[in-house]
Automatic annotation (TrEMBL):
Residues 73-83 have a biased composition (Basic and acidic residues). InterPro entries: KdpC (IPR003820). The lineage of its organism: Bacteria, Bacillati, Actinomycetota, Actinomycetes, Propionibacteriales. This is Potassium-transporting ATPase KdpC subunit. The system is composed of three essential subunits: KdpA, KdpB and KdpC.
Length: 194
C-alpha cells in the first residue's frame, strides 16, 4: 500500500512538473518566439492596419461597410461586417430567403448603378464565407465607377486608373481571382477629390 501511494505521489509530481514546463514553453515561450519572429514583418504581423493621416481607419484584411453614393461598396455581409460574428449565412442555393435576398440586392445595385439587373456581378449579390471579404471583383468596381466619379467630381478615366492601381492579381500568379481592396480604393478616392 505504501509503495502504491509513493508511486502515485511520484507520478503526480512528475506530471505536475511536465505541466509546468510545457505551460512555460508552449504558453509563454512559443507565443513570444512567434511574436519576435513576426516583428520584422511590421504591419503584416499586426493585421495590416490601413492608416490615414497616421490614424488607423481599418484593416487591409477585413471588409467594412461603406454607405452613400460617393464610395465604392463592399460585398454584402450577413453579419454587417462584425468580426466577432464572422460566419456565412448557411443558406443553400435552393433556400427561398436567400433567393429573395439576392433578387432584392440585384434590383438595388442595378438601380443604383443604372444598369440592367443581369449586368450585376455575383460578388455584388452574395456574401463571402466569412462575411468579411475586403475585396470586390474588378467587374463590380468598374460597375460602380461612373457613379463614384460623378458624385466625387472626378473623371471616369481617373477613377478607372485608381481601380486599376488598387487591383491585386492572383496569389502566386495562379490561385484565386483578381480583387480590388475596397478600403484602399475608397481612401484613394478621398485623396483625389477636388
Amino acid at each position: 500500500m505504501y509503495s502504491l501511494l509513493t508511486d502515485l505521489v511520484r507520478q503526480s509530481a512528475a506530471g505536475l512538473r511536465l505541466l509546468l514546463v510545457l505551460t512555460v514553453l508552449l504558453g509563454v515561450g512559443y507565443p513570444a518566439a512567434v511574436w519576435a519572429v513576426a516583428q520584422p514583418l511590421g504591419d503584416h504581423a499586426a493585421g495590416q492596419p490601413v492608416r490615414l493621416d497616421g490614424e488607423v481607419v481599418g484593416s487591409a484584411l477585413l471588409g467594412q461597410q461603406f454607405e452613400g453614393e460617393r464610395w465604392f461598396h463592399s460585398r454584402p455581409s450577413p453579419n454587417d461586417h462584425d468580426t466577432l460574428a464572422s460566419a456565412p449565412s448557411n443558406l443553400g442555393p435552393s433556400n427561398e430567403d436567400l433567393m429573395a435576398t439576392i433578387a432584392e440586392r440585384r434590383d438595388t445595385v442595378a438601380a443604383a448603378e443604372g444598369v440592367d439587373p443581369h449586368q450585376v456581378p455575383a460578388d455584388a449579390l452574395t456574401a463571402s464565407g466569412s462575411g468579411l471579404d475586403p475585396h470586390i471583383s474588378p467587374e463590380y468596381a468598374r460597375l460602380q465607377a461612373d457613379r463614384v466619379a460623378r458624385v466625387n467630381g472626378l473623371t471616369p478615366e481617373r477613377v478607372a486608373r485608381l481601380i486599376e492601381s488598387a487591383t491585386s492579381g492572383r496569389s502566386w500568379g495562379f490561385l484565386g481571382a483578381p480583387g480590388v481592396n475596397v478600403l484602399e480604393l475608397n481612401l484613394a478616392i478621398a485623396q483625389e477629390r477636388p
